[in-house]
Write a structure and sequence with these properties.
Blueprint lengths: L6 H5 L6 E5 L4 E4 L1 H7 L3 H4 L11 H10 L8 E9 L3 E15 L2 E8 L3 H45 L3 E6 L4 E4 L1 H7 L3 H4 L4 H4 L1 E4 L9 H8 L3 E2 L4 E4 L5 E13 L2 E11 L1 H43 L5
Antiparallel strand pairs: 1-2, 1-5, 3-4, 4-5, 6-7, 6-12, 8-10, 9-11, 10-11, 11-12
């Protein structure tokens, strides 16, 4: 059995109110829960007869203790405790022989919840469990909706004909679609975590000088940035292709979470533009030739008419 001096050290961790009462009926120790429940300070309880803190204690307490003084198991009962500020606490309790120290017997008195309190706490617990269940259900629905939207967005970006690269706020690659893999010659698994400047190398077509990466521009300005004209993408294998398009920040409540870069190969468009320019030059040359032919014809007709009007001039 434990000593009375060790009672607080052990009993304070328990949530239920506990009192240690001597065989003579004095309170030897009380745990923190009992002190808080009764409302008396510890120094007001220790050494005080239990009869002084129980209603009608002089007639009730001796009999209550006598019936439990030799019982090693807890015997239920009921006491009305006088709480601080002249209040009363009618509570079921139980007591039994707990400690023998120096030839002295001590009884452990434990407060028990009454059925109404238990039912009330059970109802509160059920309400909290129901609320938690509803919150978990709502969160799962939100997570499911988010996952479905993310899958839809991923499928859409995978299906489009433009290259798409997504980075984090520091410019590290987090995702790229198959077109971006094809144009850059980087696999997503290899590119993930690398800086975009390693994966997306761009040069000026005429000067061959590096162009500032659009992600750096977006991070600096916080706005949508279009790629400059005459931009060449240098792929991982050294091949080059002309590209254009833009980069934009991914914003959430004023915070930049990352960058999305969308670009496309404009080789065919450049070829069409060149063919169109050549065709325009050819048409202009033909028009100039026709205009010159018309002028020569007009000059010949004018000369012929003049000669016909003056046949003897030669």
């Amino acid at each position: 059995m434990i000593a009375a001096s060790q009672f607080r050290q052990i009993a304070d961790v328990l949530p239920e109110p506990l009192l240690l009462v001597s065989a003579g009926g004095c309170i030897v120790a009380a745990n923190a829960a009992a002190i808080a429940t009764i409302g008396w300070r510890e120094e007001q309880l220790l050494g005080r007869p239990l009869a002084e803190v129980v209603k009608d204690g002089t007639s009730v307490v001796p009999e209550f203790l006598r019936l439990r003084a030799r019982q090693r198991h807890m015997v239920p009962g009921r006491l009305i405790f006088l709480t601080r500020n002249d209040g009363e606490l009618d509570t079921p309790c139980e007591a039994g022989l707990a400690i023998k120290e120096g030839g002295q017997s001590h009884l452990l008195l434990r407060f028990r919840d009454n059925p109404a309190a238990v039912q009330s706490r059970f109802r509160i617990l059920n309400d909290r469990i129901d609320a938690l269940g509803r919150e978990i259900h709502k969160r799962r629905l939100a997570e499911q909706a988010l996952a479905e939207r993310e899958q839809w967005l991923r499928t859409t970006l995978t299906s489009i004909g433009d290259g798409v690269i997504v980075t984090d706020s520091g410019g590290g690659v987090t995702w790229m679609n198959p077109v971006a893999e094809q144009l850059s010659k980087w696999n997503e698994s290899e590119a993930k975590g690398r800086q975009l400047t390693d994966v997306f190398r761009i040069l000026h077509e005429s000067t061959r000088r590096p162009i500032e990466n659009p992600v750096q521009k977006v991070l600096r300005t916080g706005r949508i940035v279009g790629l400059g004209n005459h931009t060449l993408l240098v792929a991982r294998d050294g091949s080059e292709c002309p590209i254009d398009d833009s980069a934009a920040p991914i914003m959430d409540q004023g915070r930049c979470l990352g960058i999305v870069l969308v670009f496309r190969d404009v080789t065919a468009q450049r070829a069409s533009d060149r063919a169109l320019r050549v065709g325009r030059r050819e048409l202009q040359h033909r028009a100039e030739q026709l205009a010159a032919t018309d002028r020569r014809k007009d000059e010949f007709l004018a000369t012929l008419a003049h000669e016909l009007r003056n046949p003897l001039a030669p």
